[in-house]
């Protein structure tokens, strides 16, 4: 990746780039709720600092000042951003689905709710496509860790 592309793709997070003797440091501002996994930072020195911005932390990624080191930082930062944005989106989706489930429980009769079934299968994943069976009931197939099968009485 070129410097321009990296800077452009991280402009919401990048605070500074510093050259310190034989080392380079990319200083990034992340949410203080974000996670940085060890697998994201192999062969990179990571230094966390407080931030003047509320709910933020400044993270410095330091490597030797050479092309390989800079590429490692770029890959590391990109994977951290991707991981945490996906995590936030999953949490938002989870809260939304919990709210949907609360609404079902508030609006359906107890007898209908007793027949509600959840099928959890590690190998069956939900897709975003819905299909209708012969009775007109909506079923989901596909690519998630959880599958939801409402009973026909709902």
Key descriptive features of the protein:
single chain, 154 residues, alpha+beta, Gyrase A, domain 2, 34% helix
Under CATH at level 1, the class of the largest domain stands as: Alpha Beta
Strand content: 25-35%
Q: Helix/strand-derived class?
A: alpha+beta
Envelope shape: elongated
SSE ordering:
HEEEEHHEEEE
Number of domains: 2
Order of neighbouring strands in the sheet with most strands: 1-2-4-3
The fold-level CATH name of the largest domain is Gyrase A, domain 2
Distance between the termini: 52 Å
Q: Tell me the Rg in angstroms.
A: 23 Å
What topology emerges from the helices and strands here?
Elements: H1 3-9, E1 14-20, E2 23-31, E3 45-50, E4 56-64, H2 67-107, H3 110-114, E5 117-120, E6 130-132, E7 138-140, E8 146-149
Structural overview:
This protein is α+β, with helices and mostly antiparallel strands. It has two domains: 3-82, Gyrase A, domain 2 (2-Layer Sandwich); 109-149, no CATH class. It has three helices and eight strands; from the N terminus they run αββββααββββ. It has helices spanning 3-9, 67-107, 110-114, and strands at residues 14-20, 23-31, 45-50, 56-64, 117-120, 130-132, 138-140, 146-149. Strands 1-2-4-3 form a four-stranded antiparallel sheet. A two-stranded antiparallel sheet has the order 5-8. The longest helix has 41 residues, at 67-107. The model is unreliable at 123-154 (pLDDT under 50).
